[in-house]
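Q: I'm writing a short methods note and want an example of a predicted protein-small molecule complex. Could you take the sequence and the SMILES for manganese (II) ion and return the bound structure as tokens? Please keep the output block clean; save any remarks for afterwards.
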Amino acid sequence: MLDELDKKFEQIFVDELTEKKLEKINGKYEQKVVFFTDIGSGQKDIISDTFENRMVVIADHHEVAEDGEVDIHVNPMLINNGEEIDGGEEISGAGVTYVIANKALKNSDELLQFALIGATGDIQKNDNTFTGMNREFLDEAEKKDVINVKNGLRLYGRSSKSLVKALKYTTDPFLDGISNDESGTVQFLRNIGINLRDDEGWRTLSDLSEEEERNIIHGLITRGYENVENLLGKVYVLKNGWEIQEFSSLMNACGKLEKPEKALDICINSEYDKAWKIKKEYGRKISKYMSLLERKIDDEDFVEKTSFGTLIKAGGNINPNMIGTITTIATKSGMVEGPVVLGLAEKGEDKIKVSSRLTDGYEDKVQLNKLMEESCEKVGGKGGGHRMAAGGKIPREERDRFIKIIKNSLKQLKD
Ligand SMILES: [Mn+2]
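A: Understood, no commentary inside the block.
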């Protein structure tokens, strides 16, 4: 939007806004306007104090602080106390920012995709559909032809893995003779006449024609696989050819690798060769941490079996940005046992990042977002998230007390 308006700007990426951080920004930058996106509403009080003499714009969808006045504040929570539009599921920070861009520009069609990518990254796309404002963005984006929604095969890796790998790694539902079986997969695809490579190398599912994709679906059905319909559904393809979920994972990977500026490069300047590098680097980092975990699996100081499940005490060995992802993979792969898996990693000098995951079947027994919010608060930290996946930050010296609180709260979980 700012490019389009020919406005000069600099951007900073932050994962939290403290008084100290705001002061630093205030001292370092001289621009007349400060624009916050996806953050700021909850810090409106300290923001308005810090930037008294500048124009402040906030585009956010999180809780709003009571005090403080800013020049422009767009947030669904401000409309009828958030009762009309649910900032949790119906619009993301990217969507709110798009609302402003839509007002500021004559034509904001190209930016619609970011509203949807942001919503996807914020896990607002549930059961593979968008709701509320996000749904309106989607309808508009389809009309303006900036996204293509079609029925197809929902394989992970549609636009980021070779077709062979994407199909081979499909294990839910388990396709006997294809899942985890590379030569079986190759044979299956060859039998229905799919060319696995083209001039540019291995083809991805998104490289295939609609007819080829239909042939694969038909082939799977003919082979009599049960639950093939679980693989079928709406596929959201962006103008750049990426499937939206995978593109949003790529944005996420940039953040996790502490290279958020790369995400912006990819979005604004379409630097997709950077995208592939990021994907590779992220993959390498994950496998490095996963093999560390595997080596330490019997080391009680690192992986402790507890009354509630498993406690991963990573200390300074796993990047705090990655502990959530590692905890998820360890849980989902069955490498560690639930019902609750709690990962801890040191963050900075004096904090610990905590991350919790719940295994299937315990949905009704515990709400991790509540547990994290309350337990972190008890030790002077902050937490929250989702029912099955939540996290937070606590002061480092409170580690043992925090673990005790969690153990106590989850005492009855296994009965
Ligand atoms: Mn957000």
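A: Remarks, as requested: Residues 13 and 260 are 7 Å apart (CA to CA). The longest strand covers residues 340-347.
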